[in-house]
Design brief:
Number of strands: 17
CATH class of the largest domain: Alpha Beta
Radius of gyration: 19 Å
Strand content: 15-25%
Shape: globular
Order of helices and strands: EHEHEHEHHEHEEEHEEEEEEEEE
Number of domains: 2
CATH topology of the largest domain: Rossmann fold
CATH superfamily of the largest domain: Class I glutamine amidotransferase (GATase) domain
Helix content: 10-25%
Length: about 290
């Protein structure tokens, strides 16, 4: 019996915590462009998650134009009819960088889920395009996505709401605006109920590149990793919804620009074993 083997994507996948700098150095967005490996990449901006799509597009068009984009197109998908629109699909297929803006991630998944447009995004990623997203556009990238849960007291059974994401990265759960909105308890609750997932908490103006089994942190902000794989005990299976969860021996890491983490080994890489990628050739912490 022949098994269907999915092609390994050769494009870059970048998740940004939100509120990234767009007016001064724009360090994160500049790197997003550089990851394409093209001098003047064509950028498609998906604004589906936003309630003010035209304003959001105008803001990103200004910054990507300033950073040297060849063309910046608005992939203005607002409903389920748009995900089969030939012009929208053409813009996705012609983009070297596909950038997904912030807003409401449930809008993204409910509109894109199972669609030709999502298939086209995955195909461009497989072919080599950069897929980058900020805030909701980052949270949607994982196979399972967080879409709700009170920041101050989510360490209760059932408090964090999860649903299917875009499936661009497996084995992680991504949360955004992580430090600024105090979302530690959200990833703690996720880890207590799903210890196989690595929680990736992205602070504002912070980003990660997912490449092979390595997470590369970059940008001025912090990336917080919550690893529950070695958890030695939890009461979650005994509880009714809403009751307080305990979780023992959960490991956390705070990463900054230049730090790297191995997903398969579940550890931060040391100075002498940092891995080079197409952009980061330096092998030292900054």
């Amino acid at each position: 019996m022949n098994m269907l083997i999915q092609p390994k994507p050769i494009g870059k996948l970048i998740a940004i915590g939100g509120a990234e700098d767009k007016v001064s150095d724009s360090a994160i967005l500049r790197r997003v462009m550089e990851f394409s490996g093209i001098e003047t990449p064509r950028v498609g901006v998906i604004t589906t998650a936003s309630s003010i799509p035209d304003d959001v597009f105008a803001e990103y068009k200004d910054v990507f134009d300033r950073l040297g984009a060849g063309k910046v197109k608005h992939i203005r998908i607002r409903n389920r009819e748009d995900v089969i629109d030939a012009e929208m699909l053409k813009m996705i297929s012609q983009s070297d960088v596909i950038f997904i803006s912030g807003g409401d991630q449930m809008r993204l998944t409910s509109i894109f889920g199972g669609s030709e447009a999502l298939t086209a995004i995955r195909k461009r990623h497989e072919e080599g395009a950069v897929i980058a997203g900020t805030s909701a556009g980052a949270a949607c990238q994982s196979t399972t996505m967080v879409y709700g849960g009170h920041a101050t007291d989510s360490l209760r059974k059932g408090a964090v709401k999860m649903t299917a994401g875009f499936g661009l990265i497996e084995g992680v759960i991504i949360d955004t605006h992580f430090l600024e909105r105090g979302r530690f308890s959200r990833l703690m609750e996720v880890g207590a109920t799903n210890p196989e997932y690595l929680g990736v908490g992205l602070g504002e103006d912070a980003a990660v590149l997912f490449e092979d089994d390595t997470i590369y942190a970059f940008g001025p902000g912090h990336v917080i990793l919550v690893d529950s794989s070695g958890m030695t005990g939890s009461n979650v299976f005994e509880l009714a919804d809403g009751e307080a969860v305990s979780a023992h021996n959960v490991v956390m890491h705070a990463l900054v620009d230049g730090n790297q983490y191995c997903l398969s080994d579940r550890r931060v890489l040391g100075r002498n074993e940092l891995r080079a990628n197409s952009l980061e050739q330096r092998n030292a912490y900054t």
